[in-house]
Specification:
Radius of gyration: 32 Å
CATH superfamily of the largest domain: Winged helix-like DNA-binding domain superfamily/Winged helix DNA-binding domain
Structural class: mainly alpha
CATH class of the largest domain: Mainly Alpha
Number of domains: 2
CATH architecture of the largest domain: Orthogonal Bundle
Order of helices and strands: HHHHHHHHEEHHH
Shape: globular
Number of strands: 2
CATH topology of the largest domain: Arc Repressor Mutant, subunit A
Strand order of the largest sheet: 1-2
Strand content: 5-15%
Length: 242
């Protein structure tokens, strides 16, 4: 019901203010669990296309006809293969990016985003990727990636350090994980992967040396029947006596 109502409202919107209000309602519904990841992304793409159509029809005063804005349009990042993006975010979400108690708070797309952030933090100590790069790796849209990171920040799992520059382009934010439970989970995961690599590697043997396999005394003693030592004991005693 909510999906159909949002779809009809997007088609009936005629102003940019209405589109902004619908965008807020869309992501509020996604955050509350009314909309799934795929439905939210499909509606976001439809809303973006509708907003572009409305913006193209606007002719501001003082700007020559044929030029809709003084600023060049920003290239919109869209997945060339939506099925591949869907499979990628499902795989990332199912790979255990965080403890189950924490993962239960997030959707599949949000878990995929947090897996990318967690991998960067585990490797470099901090995640300095831009939002577009995180969204592309996770197989989600830019807005969903932003919402997932802000939601994790609100839950006290990570911190966001903004790097703004006056008069020039801002640098990507720095994301750091502060949840001890999440940090311990990542450390265990790295130790487990290292252990698997060590066990999978073939043992290194010296050149020209034959490996020695010591006899297992427990197996050797277990194979001897208790009657045999009692038979041999008198013979050994007779040999030792003068």
């Amino acid at each position: 019901m909510f999906h159909a109502a949002m779809k009809a409202a997007i088609e009936d919107a005629r102003t940019l203010a209405q589109m902004d209000a619908l965008s807020r309602q869309l992501w509020q519904g996604h955050g509350s669990g009314v909309l799934g990841d795929e439905d939210a992304q499909a509606l976001a793409e439809r809303l973006h296309g509708r907003r572009s159509a409305i913006r193209d029809g606007i002719r501001p005063v003082g700007i020559p006809a044929g030029r809709a804005s003084l600023f060049p349009p920003r290239a919109r990042s869209a997945s060339p293969d939506r099925a591949a993006s869907r499979d990628r975010r499902r795989l990332l979400a199912c790979s255990g990016p965080m403890p189950p108690a924490l993962a239960a708070r997030f959707t599949t797309g949000q878990l995929a985003v947090l897996r990318i952030v967690g991998d960067e933090v585990a490797t470099k100590g901090v995640c300095g990727l831009c939002v577009d790069a995180i969204a592309a790796r996770a197989g989600v849209c830019r807005r969903l990636a932003q919402a997932a990171i802000r939601l994790a920040e609100g839950d006290g799992l990570l911190t966001i350090e903004e790097r703004r520059h006056e008069g020039r382009k801002n640098s990507p934010n720095l994301v750091r994980i502060i949840s001890r439970e999440w940090q311990a989970w990542m450390r265990r995961g790295r130790r487990g992967s290292h252990r698997e690599q060590t066990e999978a590697a073939p043992p290194v043997q010296g050149i020209g040396c034959k490996p020695i396999h010591p006899t297992d005394k427990g197996i050797t003693l277990g194979m001897i029947s208790p009657a045999e030592p009692s038979k041999k004991l008198p013979e050994r005693q007779s040999q030792t006596r003068p």
